[in-house]
C-alpha cells in the first residue's frame, strides 16, 4: 500500500475528472487522478472540440458554460493548449429555420445570450464555409470556442501536474473503491479522504447496483473529419445546420420549432431514428470535423452504420462548402447522458461520489460545473454531502434562474 495520503482521488482522466482535479487543487487539496489507459481514449476526445454556451438552456446551465469558457481562455493564456475563440453561426436555409432563429433572438439578451441575427450577406462575410444557395440568414454568437480534444486532453495532465501538483496514475485499473481506500487490480492501493468517480458509464463496473438504479443512459455517436483544408483555408466560426435546432434545449421554447421537426421527419425519418444533426468545426491543423448522430442504450451495437455517415455527409454538402471534402478519419464513441439534466452527481457513501452524465457537453460544461460544485462543497464545510439542485444553484449565485 502506498504511504501517501490524498485529500481527493479522482477515477477517470477525461474532461470531467480533469476539471474537478483543477478546481480542487486550486483550493489547496492534494489530488491524485487514476485512469486505466495510458492516455485519454474515451468520449472526451471523440467530439467536435466545441465549447458551446449558445446551446445551453438559460440560467444555471448557460452560466456554467460561460464560466467554463472563461477557464478555457485562461488556459489559452497560461498554457500551450490551443483555444480558438471562433464564435458560431446557426444557419437557416429554410423559412421555418429562419423563423426559429428570429424567435430565439427576440428574448436572447434578456435570457443571458450574447448573439444577434445576421442577414444573408452578413452571414457569408463571416464564413467561407457557408453554402449561399437558399441561405436566409444566421444567428451569430461570439461566445463559442474551439479546442483540439485529443491534444487538449493530453496537455492538461502535465499542466496540472506542473502548475498545481496534481498526481496522475495512468495504466492503473481501479477495481474497488471504499471510504478512504482506492484499490487497483494489481493489488496496489492508495488512501484518500474523498473519492470522485468521473469515468462516465464505466462506473458501472465499480458500483453496478448503483448504476442500475441511476437515470443515466448510454449514447453512441458517429463522426468524421476531412483532411486539412488547402492553403490555410479557414471556415471561421463553428457552423450549425437547421437540423441542429432540434437537438439543443435552448430552442425548445420557439413556436416554429415544431414545423422544423415535422419537416425534417417527413424529409427523412432516419434523421430522427439516428438522432442526426449536422455541425462543422475546424481544428488547429485545418481539418474539419463533421457530425453527428445519437443512438441510445438497446439501440447501440458495436458496428458502425455507413448509412449514418452518408446522411451526415449529404446534409453537410447541402449546407456547407469546403475546399477539401476528402474524409480521412471516421470514429464513434459512447458517452453517459442524464435525460433532462445537465449532469449526474450523487453521493454513494459519505466519502465517495459519482459525477458524470454530461452527455455531449463535457467540453462545454465541465470546468464551470466543477467550479460551482467545489464552491458549494467548501462553503458547506462538509464535502460530498447530498445537496439539492436548488441549493447548488443558489450557492452558485443564480437562484433567480430557478
What can you tell me about this protein's structure?
The chain has 402 residues and is α+β, with helices and mostly antiparallel strands. It has two domains: 5-45 and 149-215 and 341-401, FAD/NAD(P)-binding domain (3-Layer(bba) Sandwich); 88-142 and 217-337, D-Amino Acid Oxidase, Chain A, domain 2, CATH 3.30.9.10. Helices cover 32% and strands 24% of the residues. It has eleven helices and 20 strands. It has helices at residues 15-26, 60-78, 95-108, 120-126, 149-164, 208-212, 257-267, 270-273, 306-319, 362-379, 389-395; strands at residues 5-11, 31-34, 50-51, 83-84, 88-92, 116-119, 137-141, 145-147, 167-169, 174-178, 181-184, 189-197, 217-226, 238-240, 279-282, 288-291, 295-296, 327-337, 344-349, 352-356. The strands form three sheets. Strands 5, 6, 7, 13, 14, 15, 16, 17 and 18 form a nine-stranded mixed beta sheet that branches. Strands 1, 2, 9, 10, 11, 12, 19 and 20 form an eight-stranded mixed beta sheet that branches. A three-stranded antiparallel beta sheet has the order 3-8-4. Helix 1 runs parallel beside helix 5 and helix 2 (60-78) crosses helix 10 (362-379).
